[in-house]
Amino acid sequence: MPFMRFLALILIVAVFCLALVFTYQNKDQLASLTFGSRTTGPIPIFIIILGSFLLGVIFTSVIGIIEGMKMRVGNTRLKRRIKKLQAEVDAMRNLPLSGSPDEVRLPHELDDEDSAL
């Protein structure tokens, strides 16, 4: 795990350095943006490109957070189901080996009858 953090740190530093070089080399290039009927004044190109990159990072981060939350909720639901099924298996292991099938009732069958009362 520490290797992955180190690799991520190197990647972040490399991207930051590349952004600085890009900014320095394109500081004099100007462009204006038009969106619908609105037009901006001259803006340095590096601000436009780095701004769109930042918006992309934010957008994908939000999507990643939402997907992560969905997975956590799903995992919690599945863990609850595993506990319930494990309890049922444990209860079935404690059933007697002999006896008529009418006498043997599973724990979930008892719960269904008790809830009807």
Describe the structure in your own words.
The protein has 117 residues and is mainly alpha-helical. The protein is built from three helices and four strands; from the N terminus they run H-E-E-E-E-H-H.
Summarize the SSE layout with pairings.
Blueprint: H1 2-25, E1 30-31, E2 34-35, E3 38-39, E4 43-44, H2 45-93, H3 107-116
Labels describing this entry:
117 residues, mainly alpha, two-stranded antiparallel sheet, 71% helix, elongated
Q: What's the Cα radius of gyration?
A: 30 Å
What oligomeric state is this? single chain
Care to count the β-strands? 4
General shape? elongated
Give the N-to-C terminal Cα separation: 54 Å
User: What is the residue-averaged pLDDT?
Assistant: 84
The helix/strand class is mainly alpha
Q: What fraction strand?
A: 5-15%
Number of helices: 3
Uncertain segments: 112-117
Query: Biggest sheet, open or closed, and with what strands and sense?
Result: 2 strands, antiparallel
Approximate helicity band: over 70%
Query: What is the N-to-C succession of helices and strands?
Result: HEEEEHH
Query: Which strand order spans the largest sheet, edge to edge or round the barrel?
Result: 1-4
Kindly summarize this structure in a few lines.
With 117 residues, this protein is mainly alpha-helical. Helix content is 71%, strand content 7%.
